Amino acid sequence: MERKRLNLILYSAAALLVIIVLAVWFTAFSLPAEPVQEENEVDVEETESDLPKIESSNESLFDGQEIKANKERSLAVIIENHTEARRQQAGLSEASLVFEAEAEGGITRFLAFYPYQNTEKVGPVRSARPYTVRWAEMFDSAFAHAGGSEMGFNTIYNSGRILDLDGLALEGGQKYFTRDYLYYAPHNLFTNLAELRELAEDKGWDREISDPVFEFGSSLDNDEDADLADTIRIYYPWPQYYVRYEYDSENSVYKRYQAGEAHIDKNTGDQITPSNVIVMITNYYPTDEEGRLYMKTEGQGDMYLFRNGKVFPGTWERYTTSDVLKFYGEDGKELVFEKGPTWISVVNQTAGMQWE
To answer: 100 in helix, strand or coil?
Structure first.
């Protein structure tokens, strides 16, 4: 009897063991397995850095156009306008602001401002005059030129508001200022704006533009009463330097002509088309046998703003070299400019211009 009971216990234990083994096998091999993640499938939580990046844009304080630069620093470049320099003129169409003024002998020259541009080829670069230095001072510019008159150099040396970048002193390497030997000297010296910015940074020149140069807007208070001005003519002493602007109403710009021909930028092949044209009247006269000029850059005088095919007479004002030029209408209010480039032609008498 005792033996039978022992055998029964053994058989029951064996049966229980078999049941346990079967249960384990069923769990391990019959139920669906947990999904196994492949080595190359990494579960990463989406973060802000994974989201598409949208480049921010700002409005230029110089021309009101949208730009990607976070800061604007003025580069001012003297660009010649001799008839032998015109076919190779490069970079003028990209400038935000351009002054056009006589040098000596009735030949005009440009002072072009580039607050955010990094144009690779700008020129031909020519020499400085005291009045170009005074205008460059308005924006604490890095000032690119190729030598200068004695008074021009004196004004540079006595100024604490520009960084002197003399191309004649800096040329000779592969950077900053280089000669294009497809053209004859002195009409073949060019500069690279991106490289000039590097040079200014190396010299510790970090003068940021903080205030708008002009007030920008779509209309003026007296737009309806303004005279039409689809064509502007400016008469410098020689016909080779006569300027004409024709208003393009479709694009709200003025097409520029010199000596009867479209003024073309060599870089782009496009005609120069500012949004605003100013004729600024001031006093200037020769001071030496070579015809170098004294030009009044401070004080006030008459001016005419042309925008949207209309003309707005007024005055320009700048009382110290620390001031920026301001332009006011006949009602005494500051004039409003179209967004886009502005070209300022400086003349010394109202007889030197007309519009229709």
So the answer is: strand
User: Which residues are CB-neighbours of 66 under 8 A, at least 6 positions away?
Assistant: 57, 58, 59, 60
HSE-up of 114 (CA within 13 Å, CB side)? Answer: 28
- Between CA 168 and CA 228 the distance in angstroms is 45
Instruction: Give the DSSP per-residue string, 167-204.
Output: HHHHBTBSSSEEE-TTS-TTTTEEE-HHHHHHHHHHTT
Can you give the pTM of this predicted structure? 0.83
Q: Do 268 and 93 form a contact (C-beta atoms < 8 A)?
A: yes
Can you tell me the distance from the alpha carbon of 111 to that of 94, in angstroms, rounded to the nearest whole number? 13
303: part of which helix (H) or strand (E)?
Answer: strand 299-307
pLDDT digit string (tens) for 202-251? 999 999 999 999 999 876 555 778 999 999 999 999 999 999 999 999 99
- Beta strands 342-347 and 97-102, pairing class: parallel
* 63 and 50 Cβ atoms separated by less than 8 Å: no
Q: Which domains does the chain have, with CATH numbers?
A: 58-355 (3.50.90.10)
Give the span between the Cα atoms of 318 and 300, in whole angstroms: 6
Query: CB within 8 A of 17, min separation 6: which ones?
Result: none
- Of 120, 169, 121, 128, the closest CA to residue 145 belongs to 128
Residue 73 near residue 200, CB atoms below 8 Å:
yes
